[in-house]
Design brief:
The chain is mainly beta and about 90 residues long. The chain is built from no helices and nine strands. The strands form two sheets. Strands 3-4-8-7-6-5 form a six-stranded antiparallel beta sheet, with no helix packed on it. A three-stranded antiparallel beta sheet has the order 2-1-9, with no helix packed on it.
């Protein structure tokens, strides 16, 4: 699977975990140069508290377009250490 934004592959892995129709990529599979920590947090009743990344590629910014669960609840342990995408990031095979 590949995550693409602004015509760049920002993550690639054949070991994604699918939860609620989102592909979660291992953190080791993301291209760190495009990711900046965000202050945003949200809460999911069964996964826990999500943290976000803003994606920056070739001078363009996609605010809070990637999320991850640094300390997921037990029901979501399979996505610990993984990152998912939205806001126009294409996830393709």
């Amino acid at each position: 699977m590949k995550a693409i934004w602004n015509n760049k592959v920002i993550a690639q892995s054949d070991q994604t975990v699918v939860v609620e129709n989102n592909h979660y990529f291992p953190k080791s599979a993301i291209n760190q140069q495009f990711f900046k920590e965000s202050d945003k947090n949200t809460s999911c009743p069964w996964k826990g508290t999500a943290s976000y990344y803003t994606i920056e590629v070739d001078g363009k910014t996609n605010t809070d377009a990637a999320w991850y669960y640094p300390n997921p609840k037990n029901a979501a342990k399979e996505i610990e250490g993984h990152v998912a995408f939205w806001k126009g990031v294409q996830v393709v095979e």
